[in-house]
Amino acid sequence: MPSSPPADLLAELEAMIGGEHVLTGAEAIAPYCEDWRGRRHGIARAVARPASVDEVAKIVDWSRRHRVPLVPQGGNTGLVYGGIPDDSGQAVVVQLGRMNRVRALDTADAVAIVEAGVILQTLQQRAAEAGLFFPVSLAAEGSCQIGGTIATNAGGTAVLRYGNMRDQVLGLEVVLPDGQIWNGLRTLRKDNTGYDLKHLFIGSEGTLGIVTAAALKLHAAPRSRATALASVRDFAAAVRLFQLAREHAADVLSGCECFTEACRALVETHAPHVAQPALRGGVYVLLQLDAASPEIPLDAILEGILAAGFDQDIVEDGVIAQSLAQAEQLWGLRENITEAQKRAGPSFSHDVSTPISAIPDFVERCLAALQALEPGLRPVVFGHIGDGNLHFNILAPAGLDPSRRHILQEQVETALYDLVAAYRGSISAEHGLGEMKRDLIEHYRPSLDSELMRAVKRQFDPSNLMNPGKAVRLL
Amino acid sequence: MPSSPPADLLAELEAMIGGEHVLTGAEAIAPYCEDWRGRRHGIARAVARPASVDEVAKIVDWSRRHRVPLVPQGGNTGLVYGGIPDDSGQAVVVQLGRMNRVRALDTADAVAIVEAGVILQTLQQRAAEAGLFFPVSLAAEGSCQIGGTIATNAGGTAVLRYGNMRDQVLGLEVVLPDGQIWNGLRTLRKDNTGYDLKHLFIGSEGTLGIVTAAALKLHAAPRSRATALASVRDFAAAVRLFQLAREHAADVLSGCECFTEACRALVETHAPHVAQPALRGGVYVLLQLDAASPEIPLDAILEGILAAGFDQDIVEDGVIAQSLAQAEQLWGLRENITEAQKRAGPSFSHDVSTPISAIPDFVERCLAALQALEPGLRPVVFGHIGDGNLHFNILAPAGLDPSRRHILQEQVETALYDLVAAYRGSISAEHGLGEMKRDLIEHYRPSLDSELMRAVKRQFDPSNLMNPGKAVRLL
Prior knowledge:
The structure is a homodimer.
Chain A: H1 6-17, E1 22-23, H2 26-33, E2 46-48, H3 53-66, E3 70-73, E4 92-95, E5 102-106, E6 111-115, H4 120-129, E7 132-133, H5 146-151, H6 159-162, E8 169-175, E9 181-184, H7 198-201, E10 210-217, E11 219-220, E12 224-232, H8 235-249, E13 253-260, H9 261-270, E14 283-291, H10 298-311, E15 315-320, H11 324-335, H12 337-344, E16 347-348, E17 351-353, H13 359-373, E18 378-384, E19 389-395, H14 402-422, H15 440-444, H16 447-460
Parallel strand pairs in A: 2-4, 3-4
Antiparallel strand pairs in A: 1-2, 5-6, 6-10, 7-11, 8-9, 8-10, 12-14, 12-15, 13-14, 13-18, 16-19, 17-19, 18-19
Helix pairs in contact in A: 1-3, 8-10, 9-12, 13-14
């Protein structure tokens, strides 16, 4: 196919959305071409910043006519290189930050209609101002955008009670790879009229179209909260404590997080400003209860869980926050692990899930495998135990020769992911595949799954211009 | 394509699954060829009753080789002719009732793996015996099967809190139209590794493959319950009462149902065994709270809702059940409306949804339109007001000439569905499309939605042998 000279191409793009919204030049586009941790640098022709769904549709139509690959990007907070361009230099990044309107916030129906570029925290705040609650909460919430959280089906700390991003979506507006605008912005709680197309786009990492807006469920605002930190011997006890919490408090259990003593010690060393609790143990479990009804005695329910945990020799020690400030201190420990880990040196990260009951065996076998591989590896294991989702991170051995790092990383990955597979788990519980795990997943996923996904991709995007090379490998 | 003589065809089928499991002969297959209300009679070559996923795969392969359409069928309790054959006489019904094993029930992970032919009530009971809870509950639960509830994304009375069938599914096993078995029976709470294929099959009414088993979420068993019936002036007040309930009791609100005074009177006349409450009003709202934590003061919370309702002039009268027997009496009213309506004579049924806040206006305009059309029409409006889902049924005028019935039914449908469309609602909130609404939906759904669905259907089932003519119209 004949292609226009590059200058004409971009001039056409500029005419469509305004020259000031088409960024070019290495320096101007650099922040959009690398991931936020600075680990992967891609190359793009330009960065386009459309302000409306019609402009996005024009860009997609332009990309189709000129065969220019598009990389949709939100807040660029992803961890798997899903929202940045590859090395080909062919792609244009479509950055959706200017589409940042809350189009509607309906308190009667408890629904918000927001554009892709709205920052997650902004939505949380707008919902709170309206006396409601948007539950998806994650570390990057101050900069990640709704479009990206939908494209990656983001998780976080409230999945246990409210589900992933997928579970919040009532409807979507999507620009399809052929440039048509699909208006699926419905706000219905029930609708059984054919295939539920929105689920195809959620979690598809921009490979089937560009999400430009979403209708999202809002929830009743919690009016009371109770938080506890318990120390337990090991992951077996942590899982049993979660099960106790589910049994005693299913109605109000919002979070059940865990981290090891190694994580706590890492925070103590590398994030000394974080308050430390008095208790010590092998594994810590953070429990959070929330209630919209002030009549619900959260403290009593939480005490009941801990008391049952003591009685059954599950809990070794525990503390219940006596104030919101104390609750935030307990969360501070959990929330500063990633930062402490970063300060402690290079590490290998893994976002895995298994059935919840498999966690103790899984962790034990992983630790043994790592020990056998290289005794200097220092595991930093934490995560959302109530979802069966662990961030199984590992600090590289002190003084590791940089030339050996890549080999060791691969060995660690293989050891861990083989065990994930043995427990029928997932090698990406909440972060997605992006470019990072696109090939790796082929090894762990049944080939029929991959074939079906490729067939869907080819049908929606026969020219492979929508975020090519991400999530789905085309043979 | 050459086709074998019919006798050879069925002999081959019999050899695969056993002669006694291939039913032929008009009388033997009649119950599988008509819907349970006896409104629609189809014709089939035979009814095949496989006992395993391998047998289903063989049947699908056989159907593909011989170009025989298949109609998957569960308990045959559908309301839209989705699970029965058409008039062509070409199809074989695949009845999944022999695949009725609960393959696993894991209390630690709160997951059940069940085959398609397991009856919904059986799953509810098995979960209860294990101290857990399966929340999907609907009128046909004593005979509908899990496979059918997944294929139709069944709803019911607990959607408000727990979601539709879709929301219970962690994984599926599906025989694809090409005869391959897709093993997507995962039990993970979080997994972001590519397109979430299971959502394509859920609600697809057997047109993309045959669901043979599912991994389903179980929930903590409610240990206490509180139920109230309130009378309110009209639907505006009913919606406001629902909103009050959501605000006061979001953590524990399991059901919010409604019905009109006409419904109550119909039950009184045609189901006189059902206990009648003392209160009277224009519309009745049934509220149910459930809690897993016995510490939660459900009665106090329910009283708080009603008290707020009185204060704000929303509630006219109310009664809180003082025992489980009384709660069942209150539910008895709601649950006997369909039966009473059936006894009252011929009627036109509509399963619609709108945004919840639109219900009052929507109902008012519907009633006006019906009055204008034919003053003898008698609306019987009830349903799941908390989901925005009304069963907008209408008793035909007394003494209606049967020859006029079909015309009037069409006029009523057009009047109602045009108003549903005006409020961006759904003409099938929970019953699906089947054969009944397959063409009608084309008028109300954006054509792009239909095009996308047809593309998916063609890709998965290029020979159009999986439940052809249901849910999706191929041009």
